[in-house]
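We close this part of the discussion by returning to an individual protein. In the encoding step, the backbone of a single protein was reduced to a row of integers, each denoting a local shape. The sequence in question and its structure tokens are set out directly beneath this paragraph.
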Amino acid sequence: MKPKKDRGFPDRQAIVAFIKANPGKVGTRDIAREFGLKNADRAELRRMLRELADDGIIKKKRHKVSEPDALPPTLLADITGRDADGELIASPAEWDEVENGEPPKILIEMPRRLKPGTAAGVGDRALLRVERSDDDEGPAYRGRIIKVIDKAKSRILGVFRSLPEGGGRLVPVDKKFADRELNIAKTDTQGAQDGDLVSVDIVRTRGFGLASGRVKEKLGSVKSEKAISLIAIYAHDIPLQFSSAAEREAEAAEPANLKGREDWRDVPLVTIDPPDAKDHDDAVHAGPDPDPNNKGGFIVNVAIADVSFYVRPGSALDRDALDRGNSVYFPDRVVPMLPERISNNLCSLVPGEARGALAVRMVLGPDGRKRSHSFHRILMRSAAKLAYAQAQAAIDGRPDDTTGSLLDPILRPLYAAYACAKRARDERDPLNLDLPERKILLKSDGTVDRVMVPERLDAHKLIEEFMILANVAAAETLEKKSLPLIYRVHDEPTLEKVHALAEFLETLDVPFAKAGALRPTTFNRVLAQLEGHDYYPLVSEVVLRAQAQAEYSSENYGHFGLNLRRYAHFTSPIRRYADLVVHRALVRALGLGEGALPDSETPETLSEVAAHISLTERRAMKAERETVDRLIAHHLADRIGASFQGRVSGVTRAGLFVKLNETGADGLIPIRSLGTEYFNYDEGRHALVGTRSGTMYQLGDVVDVRLIEAAPIAGALRFELLSSESDSGPRERRPLRPQRKLSKAHPGRSPERKRKPEKQKSGKGKKAKGKNKGKGKKGKAW
């Protein structure tokens, strides 16, 4: 790029136009050269770029700037302040600053006449409808309030610490309020003891010193693991109690009967679930298709508990279910979306009991592709309740008293149908990121017994594939009937993330085809050629982090991960509100009776529901993850000084995050403890590189660490590095390593290859903001 003739200092619009005209990231130097700026102008340019980034008009990361990632049309946002004109300013409630930089600002446009539920103030959380602003002088987005979700909080959750003179202090659980301890007078403790988890009402005070608070509720001692999940429940405002009206409706509900239903009680449907499952909302059956025109094909039946029969639109049960959005699963408890009378009784497909269900009958061809399907409202009776390992053991030649009689008539046909369906799945080639998930097993007293990674069996894959087929059938039927629905969507990775992945793979000499349409196959090829190689865990982690997050939407843009054009959740209405909406839509579309989707539901109203339940899903995932972190930190608190082996699971300017092999716990090795030399953060390599020795610590490295500190309330661990996988002598650990070119025939082998020395990056880096664990979502929440 040739320097342009000096045209004077550019205004904001000119700079923004230049950035938009150059997709990807451009640097300060590029902008300066474009406008012929002198060295004396650089400070003013950097100031202007900071302002543009603060307003969300551009995204600034290190020394590069680009257009910000587009916000969805409907989102949840926190109202953070006001501008110079007194207008409200908001930011997205869910935003990864490490990945995306500063969150964009949204100017709230208030109508002259407020609708009920839309009056908002600073500190509130609201559902917004947003669009790009055409004003480059202000925030990048403007928005209108659809509904205020939460008013500004005047209550804080924390740990009570008593003082010798009486009264005490509240140490907030939420890291955002970690520096905002509250003073609690002796008369306001409500009998709280040192170490109790309490909720405290903030008492507004004037003058200097700590604000004061009043204990509202005692939730138990944090010394007990049984209180750990309560921290997440209260910290994330997860509703714990059902309304009395909802409880009354649940108790008044009566079991389903044959009225308006087909009788499927003689079809030997079975449930296959984890051994500790409390509710059983899906059952399956399969057999060869007797149609001579479909020789080698199968008929697969999937029956799902008929929740829509009991939870009617607009009822108290419906309001509570929508508020929760989904069930939340902790190691010691479940916070259900529906009362136990519904979820664990009337809608649990227990053996021998007649239960209402919505079933889909699917015809598969010999190639595994679905040829046709039909939906039915039925009365069924489960033939058996099986665990995954139990069903798999029977197929593998180890039947027990329950599965022995089921093996030939039920289990073998199910597995044969799965083998058939797998042919089409393999041809479709969805994203193959089958990463293990840890499971915490507790003792009877609520303490951690052990952490395990359950074996991934064909029984799991069988149920998963049949559920996917049923979900596709639901979406296809509702589209054909032109009914509004909530899709489960998963966008393809952004170009920025794809370029970052390609640059990283280039450092490993792993080819990555960026040309042409992006498909899951593109990533699968990379993973396949590295299977069994030392780099496989590292590359799997980076590929995972390149993916977008699945969500709910009333607009369909497909499911990238599953490689499906249309997909909707249908198979778990007990624990997901999205599935309940799809059930209601099917009842309405097919004229199946009571509990149908109301005519008042439109794509616009469902877009608001989709935005809300996408948020509650992320809330649940975060609460579950934090609880697991706290439980394991509590479990390891008495093992300070012990040594562990793990892998580097995250690399930031703050240091290395390490995931322990034994428990799956994550902890930080601070960068200051890595040695006496200075380490640069190499974003492209996901590594820290020593400026003097070239020592490199990279994502995926195997390391030995010592536990230095455990903070159970925060769920945080701090480690000290003992050794790494190539510390067999002087620490010349991959000094900006000459990379190996992988052989196509033998991915684990690499011919010798000379490589030009790379230029070392300079600069002191910046202090990390907060604590980034660098973790991606494990498993598929698709």
